[in-house]
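EI: anyone free to look at a 99-residue chain?
SC: sure, send it
EI:
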Amino acid sequence: MSNNVDGMLIRHYNLFSDYGKSLIRIFKSPAYTLLTLSSVIGVLGGSGTLAFTPKYFASQYSLPLWKANMIIGNTCTIELWESLRFVLFYIKRIDVQFK
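SC: here you go
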């Protein structure tokens, strides 16, 4: 199976085999393995919080589920924008140069 993209011949099975080789190389390094596992745990923690906090609010504070979802959604949106604003302000202050 192959495609011609911009005059280059790309074989799909090579893309997948290279991806597997890259994963094996990453998981052989203890530093990258710990970094990957900590990222996975962080994502799972965040998704668990978003999934179960509205149910907790609904049961503990006698809120309808739609209202609890709106509270959590608005809170996460505000946190996202504030953290983005902080990071952009910090990048401007230290004059980061991207290569």
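EI: Residues 30-60 form the longest helix (31 residues).
SC: 👍
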